[in-house]
């Protein structure tokens, strides 16, 4: 077992190690996806979240679509996405625009995520369903994974998305129980676990998945406890990656976990019972998502 990082928490900036540095990629590899999404006025979490893997993914002509605009009604302290209490109205053509982009890019596996939209009566659950329906209509062979907000834990919202037919239901727990408050403002640990539990109960054959970030000051023991909590609600797949501070306005990194420690975390998750674990410094929820399904 790797050493417990509890005693290494820091308030001062931590130097960025070489293993979390990644080139952005060649402009020619990025342009196809960027042109398609910009021309249609749609968004990807790759851009809005400044994902370190977007160069690689764009080169492979894949992207994770960000539904319902670029402004989130939550203010999580780790996230790069813009925050605000008055997001723009929904674009009624967005589901069809996303579906058209899927066809143009020739995607066989698509991830749909969204900002939190606490301002909407159904918090955007119906929008996920509408976009799934549009993709299934235009590209019936394409599999769709959803990465949803917590929908405040409302059963009907989760049911709406599950019944729309995703191949995988992903909801990120993000961090350990102790750190939920400072890291995920407006979210709750038990509520997020219940989202995954409800999705599995609604469709026991549906793959469920969650993701964790390390580097906020969590301990090894807390992480193992969190993995056990996820398994207890039937979570099948897990991603574990390093938190990277988007700006000085966001939480500082307390510690960079080493590649060897990520390997140990992945091994622990598989031995505990997860069907598939992807663990590494630059792993993100949607990175190589199709390979996990």
Describe this structure in words.
With 293 residues, this protein is an alpha/beta fold. The chain has one domain (22-292): Aldolase class I (TIM Barrel), CATH 3.20.20. The chain is built from 10 helices and 10 strands. It has an 8-stranded mixed β-sheet with strand order 1-2-5-6-7-8-9-10. It has a two-stranded parallel sheet with strand order 3-4. Strand 8, helix 9 and strand 9 (237-242) form a beta-alpha-beta unit. Helix 1 (27-39) packs antiparallel against helix 4 (94-105). The longest helix has 14 residues, at 125-138. The chain is globular. The model is unreliable at 5-12 (pLDDT under 50).
Apparent shape: globular
Using the 3D structure, state the CATH architecture: Alpha-Beta Barrel
Give me the count of strands: 10
> What is the CATH third-level topology name?
TIM Barrel
Task: Calculate the mean pLDDT score and round it.
Answer: 84
The ordered H/E elements are HEHHEEEHEHEHEHHEHEHE
Helix amount: 25-40%
Oligomer: single chain
How far do the termini sit from each other? 28 Å
Number of domains: 1
Q: What is the radius of gyration computed over CA atoms, rounded to a whole number of angstroms?
A: 18 Å
Q: Report the uncertain regions.
A: 5-12
Fraction in beta strands: 5-15%
| CATH classification class | Alpha Beta
Q: What is the makeup of the main sheet?
A: 8 strands, mixed
Number of helices: 10
Strand order of the largest sheet: 1-2-5-6-7-8-9-10
